[in-house]
């Protein structure tokens, strides 16, 4: 398998799962800061011009949560068998992709990269991000992981933005369940290896 990616949140999710499952893969860097995602060679792999992309033989998969799901379906790792639990897992993957990811991403943009300031946008995204933090903390009452007692691809999908919450000016100090969950995931050997992959964490 080939993983096209960069040192980003969405690439980290896929790395975490590939390492967790002991998959054999080659990492192909696509420097999105240098604009490599717009080159014809990469657009032939993902016309949306975004990483990560996982290529397995002739099949290529885009969208990080879809990649997590396809690896989990192939390996059986991190997927509940019970239909009700499975449907919760799918909802969480969509929640991460449609709510947590975009709002945390916009906080990063408005606080780190934008050339102008926009306090109103930043406040709006921070307010929603704080709601997601409280929501996740509530979900973790008496639970080790978001879907219950087992670590799943939902935890992997949600982890990377929470791992950098302090860099975004977000606090988890009153959310003990979430703080313990973060530590539980950070201390897994596969997570440590994935976080060290780019040599920056
Ligand atoms: N929903 C996509 C988002 C992918 C995405 O936004 N990737 C960013 C890096 S994390 C990217 O490639 N940005 C380059 C660009 O948009 O030009 C996923 O989950 O994979």
Concise summary:
The protein has 201 residues and is of the alpha+beta class.
CATH level-1 class of the largest domain: Mainly Alpha
**Any idea of the CATH topology of the largest domain?**
Glutathione S-transferase Yfyf (Class Pi), Chain A, domain 2
Number of strands: 4
Distance between the termini: 25 Å
Q: Which residues form runs of ≥5 with pLDDT under 50?
A: none
Radius of gyration: 17 Å
Number of helices: 8
Helix % is 40-55%
Small-molecule binders here are: glutathione
The best one-word shape is globular
Q: Strand order of the main beta sheet, please?
A: 2-1-3-4
Order of helices and strands: EHEHEEHHHHHH
What's the number of structural domains?
2
For the largest beta-sheet, the strand count, sense and barrel status come to:
4 strands, mixed
Mean pLDDT: 96
What structural class results from the helix and strand content? alpha+beta
* Beta-strand share of residues: 5-15%
From the coordinates shown, what is the CATH architecture of the largest domain? Up-down Bundle
Care to describe what's here?
With 201 residues, this protein is α+β, with helices and mostly antiparallel strands. It folds into two domains: 2-77, Glutaredoxin (3-Layer(aba) Sandwich), CATH 3.40.30; 83-188, Up-down Bundle (Glutathione S-transferase Yfyf (Class Pi), Chain A, domain 2), CATH 1.20.1050. It is 55% helix and 8% strand. The protein has eight helices and four strands. A four-stranded mixed beta sheet has the order 2-1-3-4, covered by helices on one side. Helix 1 (9-20) links the parallel strand 1 (2-5) and strand 2. Helix 1 (9-20) crosses helix 6 (153-163). It is globular and about 45 Å long. It starts with a strand and ends in a 5-residue tail after the last helix. Bound molecules: glutathione. Glutathione binds at residues 8-10, 32, 37, 49-52, 63-65, 97.
């Amino acid at each position: 398998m080939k993983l096209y990616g960069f040192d980003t949140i969405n690439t980290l999710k896929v790395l975490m799962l590939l390492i967790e499952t002991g998959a054999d893969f080659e990492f192909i860097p696509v420097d999105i800061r240098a604009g490599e995602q717009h080159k014809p060679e990469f657009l032939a792999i993902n016309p949306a011009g975004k990483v990560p992309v996982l290529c397995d033989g002739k099949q290529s998969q885009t969208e990080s949560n879809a990649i997590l799901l396809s690896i989990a379906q192939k390996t059986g790792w991190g997927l509940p068998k019970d239909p009700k639990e499975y449907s919760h897992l799918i909802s969480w993957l969509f929640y991460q992709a449609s709510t947590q990811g975009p709002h945390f991403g916009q906080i990063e943009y408005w606080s780190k990269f934008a050339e102008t300031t926009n306090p109103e946008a930043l406040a709006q995204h921070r307010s929603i991000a704080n709601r997601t933090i409280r929501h996740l903390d509530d979900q973790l009452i008496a639970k080790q992981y978001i879907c219950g007692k087992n670590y799943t691809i939902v935890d992997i999908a949600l982890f990377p933005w929470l791992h950098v919450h302090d860099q975004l000016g977000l606090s988890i100090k009153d959310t003990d369940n979430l703080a313990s969950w973060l530590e539980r995931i950070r201390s897994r050997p596969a997570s440590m290896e994935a976080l060290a992959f780019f040599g920056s964490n």
